[in-house]
Amino acid sequence: MRLLWIKIILLFLPFTLVAQDKKKSDAHFNKGIQYFSQNKIKDALKAFELSIQADSTNYDAWIKRGFMKSMLGDFEGEMQDYNHVIAFDKDHVNAYISRGAAYNRLSEFEKGIEDFNRAIELDPPTRKLIITVALRKKRREIKKGHATTGISQSSSEMQSQNHLKKQLL
């Protein structure tokens, strides 16, 4: 009878450990979100690292850690985190959106568009989000440029919106 109990314990022990690691990972992840909301970027980065250590399959923690790295100027580390997620989960929409945005920050626009298109392919409603964010950014750039160029805002804005929509459609 004692041997049977040992077998049962050994059978369920791995599931218990995994559940504890998941809880630990989630706790660190939530702490990272809290730090980020308080603009404590380095603390958030550390919390996301601890989340990943507890559960390396917490891909949302990888993405958040990548974003924290970008905020601290570690663009190579940011890309490594996004690439890691995509290597293990080819259908992770947020990884493609995040990497696409990173490519755009690095002025690698074609690669960024490829990733945005992949995100849209995986999750069609994402199209509206991506286009909205991109257009807002473009509008800010255009408004900044008007002071020096004197170009009519409405015509240049319409041209850039049409160009962007064509690329993302």
What's this, in brief?
With 169 residues, the protein is an all-alpha fold. Helix content is 85%, strand content 0%.
Would you spell out the secondary-structure blueprint of this structure?
Elements: H1 2-37, H2 41-54, H3 59-71, H4 75-88, H5 93-105, H6 109-122, H7 126-149, H8 153-168
Helix pairs in contact: 1-2, 2-3, 3-4, 3-5, 4-5, 5-6, 7-8
Ranges with pLDDT <50 over ≥5 residues? 15-19, 147-158
DSSP helix fraction? over 70%
SSE sequence, one letter per element = HHHHHHHH
> Pairing-aware structural class of the strands and helices?
mainly alpha
Number of beta-strand segments: 0
What would the principal axes of the Cα set say about the shape? globular
Question: Gyration radius, to the nearest Å?
Answer: 21 Å
| Tally of helical segments | 8
Binned strand content: under 5%
Tell me the major beta sheet: none
| Average of the residue pLDDT scores | 81
- Could you tell me how far the N terminus lies from the C terminus, measured between alpha carbons in angstroms? 66 Å
Describe the structure in your own words:
The chain is 85% helix and 0% strand. It has helices at 2-37, 41-54, 59-71, 75-88, 93-105, 109-122, 126-149, 153-168. It is built from 8 helices and no strands. It has 169 residues and is an all-alpha fold.
Fill in the keyword field for this structure.
169 residues; mainly alpha; 8 helices; 85% helix
